[in-house]
Amino acid sequence: MAVKILKVYNTDEDIYEEIIGEVQEEVPEAWPENKELKIIGKRIPRINAPEIVTGEAKYAYDIIIPGMLVGKILRSPYPHANIKNIDTSKAEKLKGVKAVITYKNTSNVRIGRDPIFNTTVKYEGEEIAAVAAVDENTALDALDLIKVEYEELPFVVDPEEAMKPNAPKIHPQGNIVRGRPSVYSRGNIEKGFNEADIVIEETFRTPVVHHSQAEVHISVAKWEEDYLTVWDTTQGVFRIQSSLANIFHLPVNKVRVICHYMGGAFGCKLSIRRHTVYAVLLAKITGRPVKIALSRKDDYLAGGNRPSSIQQIKAGIKKDGTLTALYQKTVGAVGAYPGSAGVTTPLRTLYKCPNVKTEEYSVYVNAGQSCAHRAPGHVQGTFALDQMIDILAEKTGIDPLELRKKNYIDRDQQSNLPYTSKYLLEAYDAGAKEIGWERRNKIPGSGQGRYKRGIGMATQIWWGGGRPPAFVNVKINSDGTVNVLSGAQDIGTGTTTIVAQCVAEELGIKLKDVKVTIGDSEVCPYGPTSGGSVTAPSMCPAARAAARDAKNKLLEVASVILKSNGKPLDIKDGRIFLKNNPEKSITIKDVIGRSRVGMILGSGAREDNPEGYAVNTFGAHFAEVEVDTWTGKIKIVKYVAAHDIGRVINMLTAVNQIQGGIIQGLGFTLSEERIINKNVGRMENPDMCNYLLPLAGDTPEIVSIIVSKPDNLLSHTGNKGLGEPPMIPVLATIANAFYNATGVRIKVLPMTPEKVLMALKKI
Ligand code: MOS
After folding, report:
1. Are 708 and 599 in the same domain?
2. Which atom of ligand 1 is nearest to the CA of 269?
3. Is 460 part of any domain?
4. Residue 27: inside a domain, yes or no?
5. For the residues of 691-746, what is the DSSP string, one character each?
6. Global pTM?
7. Domain boundary at 337, 372, 407, which?
8. Rounded distance between C-alpha atoms, residue 7 and residue 146, angstroms
9. Whose CA is closest to atom 4 on ligand 1?
10. Is the pLDDT of residue 475 over 50?
11. What strands lie across the sheet with 255-258, from one edge to the other?
């Protein structure tokens, strides 16, 4: 297999890739099925769990350096204002304050083309100034002493309001990002609607929701002469390294970014943010290390969020259940700076339909900037699409599961390429069996009494195939233990553990003899930013290839010592032996000790994905809910998730991802919502008391089922991603189950008790 060298042209519009070279790599043969393997596919506790649960693990916040200062950020209390002047003199004079930065003294520092402070602030929480002081209280006192003269400007926080011609302009070009919608079409949408027996139109809405990751955004910066080290809460140490090298005009080898442990991100830590630049700049000015940790409130205001959506869908279907046309028009608020509120990929790809058109409007509002959030767009889009499928099922009198099966397709409809693997039909069957699909109400809402039960389902599609570049190095030490250096980060998913598993399996050694170093741009070879569910499918093949490379070298040395005369060798439990004469053997430790090679080094790279195929993950969720028609509370009685992710590397961490995704999805469905007071443009719930996250008591029984076989067309480890898929179908699954229970549809999230009672006409 060849690794392709790409040249990428990045214009404002599109990215063009051109292949400018190829590197041949030895690619190991595909692993056999999990049952023939020793470590892969088993339930393996995280190898770093003891450090994490005992508090030994060093997260960015735990970094303490002698002389370190605390940085704090002053933020705008207004949603839109010109800054007429800033007077920092009193703050600078306060004892213990070491530096203050504002737009006045930082105009030479830019993130790309953007300044690090704006003189017109566009949302509540936008940065105005930053200070570094000897301790937190002094830094906070200094913020109070900064005098800012604001000229308040008209603002708009609602995307539909923002699209009106007379709305306050947030950017000179207007409030629609790029000035126009993002449009897709295939087939002939008018012809499709004409061919339909039934045409229906519905509108669905989802609010802005937040990542609410356990660990807020934190950066610690330290300069030693012109060498910069940053401990960062990031999903991509290499991306932050290159951003900082650009911003501070440093060679890449003078910037080290470290993220050994991460307390969650879900997409809000994908790229450089201003607080990191402030920490680096303040450290440079003061000559002392600086730590900046956002408060929980700052994290809600400025740390990123998922765009809202208003989704109009028009669907045409024949009486026999054949979809003839799908049209989706969407509007979403991306906050005050550029972002994408696109949600239409599921509608374009999930169900077979020849005539499709989508139009997506991303709209500026005076609120915190949105960013990626666990399966961006797909979660919102599936909420609308998979309710629409249920509505169509009812209109045609076809069972909702049967209708989905009828519109199943074995290829990607945008590229017309076949999938490397697709086990969605298996997911439908396994999930339906586990939930007892036949138990659902034949007539929705027909149950009697206070508590009404119902069963619903929805489908998921996502990418998650992984890709190059991703590298791993393996060192076999003189005592037979192994160090693994892996460029990706472990953002809480268990990357450290699965990388170790791949190496241990390939080398035939025990997991406890493998130590993995991850998330360090200086000592680790390059790895991808951990987003898009690419980490496991990118890193596992690289890890196994590195172990294979080391193993080949090890066996070569051993063959000399064992005088094997070209007879094949193998390794088991740390011992190398002749395959046809296992008595003739030597330990790994002795090979390296007696040969005096010092150690053995192996390196591995992720090979390219196969040409001519689309790589996607699939899943089907089923839930039984119980609606209390007196209180409006929705209880999840049982939740079933059946997923196609290729090979399972670690059943424990896989189930962990499924459970986490479902719980996060339940929060989105039932309670989470950014509330902005339209009169003053301020967020009313920027804290974990009023922003309602799901709690342990809200967590239902969850049955996780993996239906797939290894995807050997994709890679020799055969695994696809699972970080994002489990969140995608939750919203529609619950909404459809709610409809089956009550005969009423809620098309606006979250489905709070109040909304439920209103829908049931109880209030
Ligand atoms: Mo993800 S939302 O690409 O971290």
Report:
1. no
2. 4
3. no
4. yes
5. S----GGG--EEEEEE-PPP-TTT-SS-B---SSGGGTTHHHHHHHHHHHHHS---
6. 0.96
7. 407
8. 48
9. 267
10. yes
11. 97-101, 127-133, 69-75, 290-293, 218-224, 227-232, 255-258
If asked whether residues 759 and 684 sit together in one domain, one would say yes
Whether the predicted pLDDT of 4 surpasses 80? no
- Residue 491 Cα: closest atom of ligand 1: 4
Ligand 1 atom at minimum distance from 267 CA: 4
Residue 552 carries which side chain, given as an amino acid letter?
Answer: N
Burial (CB < 10 A; 0-12, 13-18, 19+), residue 92, is: middle
Q: Are residues 638 and 739 in the same domain?
A: yes
Distance CA 620, CA 628 (A): 26
Beta-carbon count within 10 A of 646 CB:
30
Q: Which of 605, 635, 660 is the last residue of a domain?
A: 605
Residues 82 and 223 in one domain: yes
Ligand 1 in reach of 373 Cβ (< 6 A): yes
For residue 494, what are the domain limits? 2-60+466-605
388 within a domain of the structure (yes/no): yes
C-beta atoms surrounding 35 within 10 Å = 6
Q: How far is the CA of 580 from the centre of ligand 1 (A)?
A: 49
DSSP state of 569: E
Which of 215, 426, 673, 724 is catalytic? The answer is: 724
Q: Which residue carries 């699409």 as its tokens?
A: 385
Domain of 44, CATH number, reads 3.30.365.10
Q: Are residues 625 and 739 part of one domain? A: yes
User: How many independent structural domains does the chain possess?
Assistant: 4
Smallest CA-to-CA distance from 383 within 207, 542, 606, 540 is with: 207
Based on the fold, state whether residues 450 and 540 are members of the same structural domain. no
Structural domain includes residue 23: yes
Same domain, 69 and 190: no
| Residues paired with 515 in a beta bridge | 483
Are 540 and 630 in the same domain?
A: no
Catalytic site residue 556?
A: no
Instruction: List pLDDT tens digits, range 91-130.
Output: 999 999 999 999 999 999 999 999 999 999 999 999 999 9
Q: Which amino acid is at 299?
A: D
pLDDT one-digit tens code per residue, 431-456: 999 999 999 999 999 999 999 999 99
Average pLDDT of the segment spanning 554-558? 93
Instruction: Find the Cα–Cα–Cα–Cα dihedral 578, 581, 584, 590, rounded to 10°.
Output: 30
Q: What residues contact 530, with CB distance under 8 A and at least 6 apart?
A: 235, 236, 265, 488, 489, 490, 491, 493, 495
